Every structure is written in C-alpha cells, then in structure tokens.
C-alpha cells in the first residue's frame, strides 16, 4: 500500500521516437510532450495540478536551466507548482516520483512528469567526446583521470569485475544486447529499429565495434545510444480520475516505488551487489505486496550490457552471478519462459535520451499492461510490471511497480 493509503494511477503516456529530433528546441519538445500525453489520455492540461521535468544535459548543451519555467510556458500550466529534477540518468524516474509524492501528500490530484533530452545537433550529429565529458560529471572526481570516456570505462571495470568474480564470459554477456536489439527491431519508436544484431557482431572487433578501454571487456555494441527524445506520463489519484472522467477499469495502478542512493565513488563498495539498488527494489516490492515471481514484465537500465545482467539479479529474477545466464537461456526475451526485460529495446536499442529514460521505462510498462505495444512485443497476461532506473555508477536507483487494471 502506498503511503497515506492513497491510490495513484497512470492514465496516459506519450513519447517521441528516440534518436534524432532535428531542429527542435527544448521548449518545443516540452510542448510536444505535454500536448501529446494530454490528447492521448483525453485529459485537458488545465486539469493538471502539478508537474516535474527532467533534462540532465540541457544546462550544458543548450545553456538552459529552469526547465520548469519552460513547462509553465504552457498557458494551462502557468502558475502551478512545477519542479526541475536532476538525478543523473535517473532524472526521469525521479521526476515521476516528484509528482507521485505530491499526489500522495494530497497537494494535487493530477500530475504530469516530463523527461526531455537533446544530445545531438539540429543535423543529428553527436559530439561523442563532449557528451562523454559532460556525462562524466556524474562520476566521482577521483575516478575520472585517465579515462577518455568516463562512464563506459567505469562500467567496463564493473563488467571485468563481474566476469572474474563469477566466471562469466564475454560471449555469455553478448546475449544481452542481442536480446534487446531483437526487441528494438519490433519497436517503431526505437532508435536502432533497423539494425540487426547477432552474437558474432557483438564478439567481432571490427569496424565500429571495438573495446572501449584497453584491457577491459566492454565493446561498442554493448553500449547505449546517444539520443534525442522526450517522454511524458500523466498520473492521477482516485479523485483525479473522477475529475478527468477516466474509467477506473482502464487505469494502471502504481502500487509500489523505491529510491535509494549508494556512494558516488565505486571504490570501497561492492558494485556487483549495490546496496541502494537492492533496497530500492525491495521497497517497491514490499509496498506493492509482490515478489519477483509476480512480475510479468520489466524495463531496466541497460546503459551497458553488464547492467542487463545485473538488473536481472537486482530484480530478483536471477540469483547473484546468474544474470548473464538468464539472457543466454532466452528467459529475458519476449518469447522466453521467464520475465521479459526491455521489450522496448532498452537503452541499448530503443535509445537513451537521459532525461526521458526513466519516464519512458514506466510509460512502456504502462503500455504493456494496457495492451498498447506492438503485437510482436506484447507480453500476455502480465499482472505486474517493474522498472529499475539508475543514475551514475549504479549510484542513484529509482524503482516502480505497476499493476494491470
């Protein structure tokens, strides 16, 4: 049961295709996000009491802070309480929790969460070295020296530690991106929809696929994308449903959530068993009154392939050290015999517009539980859906559990 014995529901979700937005400003993207979810849910923006917005890189790439003010440029939202939220790559998930908590406090009955990011220029080009440097600001200063691409290097170290500790091979971990690309090929909104991925391609060091850091196992095809995109989620209490005239029978209940933060530095802590991540998902499960066995589908933060394996373990779908095997056995696939993960394609294939990512995870789960994803990706009879969004080097963790109507 959520705090305060109040119920909160997801009543609408919208997103752009992930990849390249072209000559679109941040304000235009926010307008599109607000308008699309309003129209899709049949809910006027005037009914929204509060909002939160996330866009991690906008202060540095677009020289734009105070995104809440851009949200308030929507006439229907002007003068209402709106927050700008930053929690590294978990910013989108944190924006949803920001709205959720206002609803739980009784300060609002209808809330809007928006995530937006423009990582490419108007021609669709991305400056990889600049993005790597800017994203690296979400790491501990002492862990940056000597790393050209800071986060790929850090997660390459995590992967190396995982492989050595558990005796896992590169080939086993290669099943993670292959699984997610196969899902992304069926998602028309995915950045890498048309790219076919195989184990041979992931393993071959040729052309665009290379080792990110010398002496470490992470390869290009195991990395998430540099993406533009926006996503928006509409939440409502029971009173909010009445105000919107939204049928309870079509609303997806948000029955559990959690958040926790591990130390920013990876030194001196067990990154293979991140305490905050485990605590956050346990909080969500306990609140929802479910166990991992009840989860029918999940969206997890596969910023790098190793996180697909670790996420399966953190969600309780695989024992520690068995996350890679979960993918080898095909249990994460939409047609597998386990709990399918990242049927959207995940960050590796769907794309990773930082501020939008956490919103999109919950939104895709909402679509799954309401039968709105492409038929080839639809998980049948899923009653609960879980999301796991992280920021930094497995530092900030945000989790949710949704319940089908």
Concise description?
This protein is of the alpha/beta class and about 400 residues long.
Structure overview:
- By secondary structure, the chain is an alpha/beta fold.
- It has a domain at about 5-120 and about 225-250: Peroxisomal Thiolase, Chain A, domain 1.
- Helix content is about 35%, strand content about 15%.
- It contains 14 helices and nine strands.
- The chain has helices at about 25-40, 60, 65-70, 90-105, 130-135, 150-165, 170-185, 200-205, 240-245, 275-290, 305-315, 325-330, 345-350, 355-370, and strands at about 10-15, 50-55, 80-85, 110-115, 230-235, 250-260, 295-300, 385-390, 395-405.
- It has a nine-stranded mixed sheet with strand order 3-2-4-5-1-6-9-8-7, sandwiched between helices.
- Helix 7 crosses helix 11.
- The longest helix is centred in the middle third of the chain and has 17 residues, at about 150-165.
- The mean pLDDT is about 95.
